[in-house]
Structure formats: structure tokens, C-alpha cells
Design goal:
This protein is of the alpha/beta class and 291 residues long. Helix content is 33%, strand content 16%. It is globular, with a radius of gyration of 18 Å. It binds iron/sulfur cluster.
């Protein structure tokens, strides 16, 4: 799950990307690791298990995936360090974060300090889970729900039969409770000709254009089709999992890992800076050693 405005995902073709790299390099310094134009988003993968098994899931999440939970102590420390470094948004993703019992504590801690977004398929947000989320009641908190179509025919082929109905019910319940709801759509061969209909649908729900994101399919995880992604064509958005720090939330594969240590987060920023310098100089990523 991740991003109408069409495809504001941080993917650049080569010339534009390289000018971005040079800009980021110029503005980065060891005393202030997050420069003004750096995407100041910190992504936290809270877990890798999910109630769904979407056929394009970049995280290979499913009901049988091992949890690999980040844990609330790590999440808190990452939020604290992100604040010190100048990040301006923390996004919680997975897996399905609302499988976790301690997700509410993590979201509450983060939303008290910074704009906080939680990504979800919206299917579990009922009853007690919805009540616990409502208790956070912070204007900093946004809930981003994945929705690939204005009707089941465009959503269910990748996400599973019956999932559209449950997700839309979840969106209604969130809106009823007054949550700031955003929608993210993955553009697929099935929904490509019907993106306008999705926009009409979210307008009908009262969700404005600026809260709808469309991202392309990425050839990562379970997906055998889509954009080929690497550090050389993705502007970095620092992403933490229990396994370490990664370049971007669209992949937690080994080639996108920049550190095996979560802390200090500033060290990961330094590693990103080194990679950006290598890309700008040689057009290639340096080999990463974890020693
Ligand atoms: S809902 Fe999101 S995390 Fe879960 S399987 Fe689908 S894409 Fe992956």
C-alpha cells in the first residue's frame, strides 16, 4: 500500500533525477542532515503480516508472512530521532498495521509530535479497533486507505474477492468518525482506463483531490510487472523496518538497504548522502558493506 493528482511518487527519469541528486547533495551537511528540499518523510514498517495477500504487494505481505514487528520502543526512538533531524512526517505502513495491538500507542506517540499517517487496507477498522484509533483524536493523524477502483471489478482482481466492499465500508466508518482520510491507488492494467471514475468516487465521499494519490505498479515483491526500481531512479525516502534502514518504502529488498542498524538515524542519512554522491558522480550505486 502506498501514494487526481497523478503519480506524485518520487520517481524521476534520469536527467531530472540527477539534477535532484545534485541539489540534495548541495544542501546536505553533517550538521543538518535533512536539507530543506529532502523528502522529510520517515517511513516505519510496523510489521509484515497482513489480512490480505495482494498479488502486487511490494512487501510480500500475507496472512502467513512472519510478523517481523518493529516494536513500539524502536518506533518511539525513531520518531524522537526523526524530530531531532528535522523530519516533518512519519508514516506507518506494513503489512497491515492494525493487526498489531500496540499500533495505537505508536500512532499516539507520533501524532503528539509530528504529522502522522497510517497506511491501511481499511478492512479491520471496525468495533474495538476503530474505537481505540478514535481515542487518539489528534489533528496530526491521517489515515491513508488503499483503494484501486470505484467498483470491485478494478480492486478485487489484485486484492482478493470481497475486499473492495470491506474497504469501502471501512472508509465510510472512518469518515463518519471524522478522520482525515486519504486514498491511495495503485495503477494497474485493470484500472488504468477507469482512474477518472475513482476520482468521481472519492469526490462523492467528500475526499478532495489533494488527498488522493496514484502510484504505478512496481516490479518488486510479489509483482512480476511494473516499473523497475532502484536507488538510481528513486529519490530516497528513509524507511525503517526491523531489519534496518532502506532507501524507499517501495522496496525492502536487500539491494535497497542502506544500513542494518536502526540507530542512530543520522548515520543512515549519512549513508544516503554517500550513495547520492556516488550516483551523481558515476551514475551507479556503490556496493554496500555491512561491517
Ligand atoms: S493490503 Fe497492502 S500490505 Fe497487505 S498484502 Fe495488500 S499491498 Fe500488501
Amino acid at each position: 500500500m502506498l501514494y487526481s493528482r497523478r503519480i506524485p511518487v518520487s520517481i524521476y527519469d534520469s536527467p531530472v533525477f540527477h539534477s535532484q541528486v545534485l541539489l540534495l547533495m548541495t544542501e546536505m551537511s553533517s550538521t543538518h542532515p535533512i536539507p530543506p528540499d529532502f523528502p522529510g518523510k520517515l517511513w516505519l514498517y510496523t510489521n509484515f503480516d497482513c489480512n490480505l495477500r495482494c498479488s502486487y504487494c511490494v512487501a510480500k505481505s500475507s496472512p502467513t508472512a512472519s510478523r517481523r514487528a518493529l516494536g513500539k520502543e524502536n518506533a518511539r526512538r525513531l520518531v524522537d530521532e526523526a524530530m531531532e533531524l528535522g523530519f516533518n512526517e512519519v508514516l506507518f505502513t506494513g503489512g497491515e498495521p492494525f493487526i498489531l495491538d500496540d499500533i495505537y500507542e505508536m500512532l499516539s506517540y507520533s501524532a503528539e509530535r509530528v504529522r502522522t499517517t497510517v497506511l491501511t487496507n481499511g478492512m479491520l477498522l471496525r468495533g474495538g479497533r476503530l474505537e481505540r484509533l478514535a481515542e487518539i483524536a489528534s489533528p496530526n493523524l491521517q489515515v491513508q486507505v488503499s483503494l484501486d477502483g470505484a467498483r470491485p471489478e478494478e480492486h478485487d482482481p489484485y486484492r482478493g474477492d470481497g475486499s473492495w466492499v470491506k474497504t469501502v465500508e471501512g472508509i465510510w466508518l472512518l469518515l463518519e468518525r471524522g478522520f482525515h482520510v486519504r486514498l491511495s491507488t495503485t495503477e494497474t492494467p485493470v484500472n488504468r482506463g477507469r482512474l477518472e471514475a475513482i476520482c468521481d468516487f472519492h469526490y462523492s465521499l467528500g475526499i478532495p483531490e489533494e488527498d488522493h494519490f496514484v502510484r504505478p505498479l512496481a516490479k518488486r515483491g510479489f509483482s512480476e510487472q511494473g516499473l523497475e526500481l532502484s536507488m538510481t531512479n528513486l529519490v530516497p525516502e528513509i524507511t525503517a523496518t526491523i531489519d534496518g534502514i532502506f532507501w524507499h518504502p517501495l522496496s525492502t529488498d536487500a539491494d535497497m538497504q542502506i544500513s542494518q542498524s536502526l540507530f542512530p538515524l543520522a548515520e543512515a542519512i549519512h549513508c544516503v548522502q554517500e550513495q547520492l554522491e556516488a550516483i551523481a558522480t558515476t551514475g551507479q550505486v556503490t556496493l554496500t558493506k555491512f561491517t
